[in-house]
Structure formats: structure tokens, C-alpha cells
Amino acid sequence: MKRKSLMAGNWKMHTTAIEARSLAADIARKCPETTDREVLLAPPFTVLREVAEVLSRTDVILASQNVCWEEKGAFTGEISPVMLKDCGVSSAIIGHSERRQIFHEDNALINKRVLGALSFDLMAILCIGETEEEQENGKTFAVLEAQVRQGLQGVEPQQMEKMVIAYEPVWAIGTGKTATKEQAQEVHLSIRRLIEKIYEKNIADRLRILYGGSVKPANVDELMSQPDIDGALVGGAALDAESFGRIINFI
Ligand code: PGA
Fold first, then answer.
1. Residue span of the structural domain in which 209 resides
2. What pLDDT does 30 receive?
3. What is the CATH number of the domain that holds 135?
4. Could you give the angle at the alpha carbon of 85 between the alpha carbons of 37 and 164, nearest 5°?
5. Whose CA is nearest to atom 3 of ligand 1?
6. What is the spatial distance between Cα 9 and Cα 84, in angstroms, rounded to a whole number?
7. How far apart are the CA of 146 and the centre of ligand 1, in A?
8. Which atom of ligand 1 is closest in space to residue 234's alpha carbon?
9. Longest Cα–Cα distance in the chain
């Protein structure tokens, strides 16, 4: 089954308005003409409007780095799906390992965010991944299974059209260590089989599973050559238009 690739840049806590405009414009110029892939940018909340304006005549998808589940109310420090849509956002990254580790977001909270995003028709990118210690103790799949099952609790089969999963081994994020293409492929296939168990084959076949963690121009082609790797979630290298430009033009 041929799935459209999704190449996502997560800018994390980087860029002022001027920097964001210029980075988005430089990246937009490097977007490939082909229809076999999509490009997505997730800038900080504070520059979403600026980036939306720069991207307005392009096909680049605008995403947020998190999302609350409620439309409005007493949720100090949170941003609602309605507010994000008002800024031109159509997708949200949820459960990034930095949210899990630094801000202690757990699977139950992340699940609320996923359900909230989907109920407002945002494409939800659920991030999962094991820590180095969990990997060393042979717990990778158990951890990923819990993150997937709990993260997707209550997501209806028809809503899976709007779901993306990003597998990002925590030990590979920002460290320069990447899973080998074989390691990543094996995990991606096991995630797809799990989705088949929870839902059905057709849904599993259509689901896009991205790889993240030190994706760079030097390793993107081999990662993207794997049958179950449908895209990349890129941090550091997404802050440089040259590098991200090469990544989105993977061969
Ligand atoms: P990295 O980050 O590419 O800098 O490793 C990936 C991510 O955190 O999404």
C-alpha cells in the first residue's frame, strides 16, 4: 500500500517572528513539486499567524506543538483547538517526548489531547518512544504498546484517517544517535501490526508512521527507503532551511 509521505519539521522553542517568517519562506521555496509527499511545519504558538501568512499560497501544512482538548475555559497556559484553527493550524503534535519527560504528561492526558484534536478535526500526530533505559531492559515494545493503546483510547475507526503516529526513540532525539533503518523498520512494522489488532488491516495499512530522532540529510534517504517508514519528524535539522530542504527532497 502506497502512503503519502509526511515530512514534518518541529521547531520546538525556537524562532522570533522575524526568524520564523524567513525560515518558513526559505523552506517553502524548497518544497518539491511531487504529489507523493506532504510537508508540515510546527512552529511555536507565538509565531503561528506569521508562518500561516507566509505559507498561505503553498501546500505546506501548519501544525501546533501541542493542543488542549477544550474549546475554551479556565485552562491557564493552554491553547484550544478552536484558537489554533483560528491561526490557520490544521494539525497538532501531541505527546512529544519533551512533553512527557520535562512536563510529565502521561498517556491519559495525552489521550485527552488526541481526542480533543480529532473532535475539532485537526490531524493528530501522536508521538511515542522508549527511553534508553527501557530499550536496554528490553521493554521497547511494551512501552510503545501502552503508549499506543492508551493514547488512542476512544478514537473511533473512522477518526483514524486523521491520525498519524510518530515513533521517536527518546535516546535518538537531539543526540545524533539514530536507530538504524532496520531497527526503525522493525519497530514501525510492529506498531502497524498493533494497529491492525486494535482496529483492522485496512486502517493499519493506511496509517502513516513517521520516524523521528536525529533525522538528517545524511540518513533520510535510507530511512525513507523502508516500507513502513512513511515520513519523518525532524527537530534540529528543521531549523536550517538547507538541511530541511534536503530532507523533504529525500530520494
Ligand atoms: P531531533 O528532534 O531531530 O533534533 O533529534 C526530533 C524531535 O524531537 O521531534
1. 5-30+37-248
2. 96
3. 3.20.20.70
4. 40
5. 235
6. 17
7. 22
8. 3
9. 48
Concatenated DSSP letters for 11-49? Answer: --S---HHHHHHHHHHHHHT--S-SSEEEEEE--GGGHH
Grid coordinates of 18 = 522575524
- Name the one residue in this structure whose C-alpha cell is 500526530: 125
Residue 34 has pLDDT above 90, yes or no: no
Q: Residue 169: its pLDDT value, please?
A: 95
pLDDT score at 190: 98
Judge if the beta carbon of residue 10 lies within 6 A of ligand 1.
Answer: yes
Is 134 an annotated catalytic residue? no
Residue with CA nearest ligand 1 atom 1: 235
Ligand 1 within 6 A of CB of 233: yes
Quick check: is 38 catalytic? Answer: no
- Where are the strands (E) in the chain, listed by range? 5-10, 37-42, 61-64, 91-94, 123-128, 163-167, 208-212, 231-234
Q: Which residues pair with 212 in a beta bridge?
A: 233
pTM more than 0.85: yes
What is the 8-class DSSP label of residue 177? -
The least confident of 1-5, 103-107, 121-125, 167-171 is 1-5
Check 98, 105, 134, 168 and give the catalytic one: 168
Nine cell digits for residue 72: 475554551
Spatial contact of 125 and 63, defined as CB atoms under 8 Å apart: yes
- Residue 1, pLDDT > 80, answer no
CA distance 73 to 70: 7
Q: For residues 51-64, b (16+ Cβ closer than 10 Å) or e, as one string?
A: bbebbeebebbbbb
Count of domains observed in the chain: 1
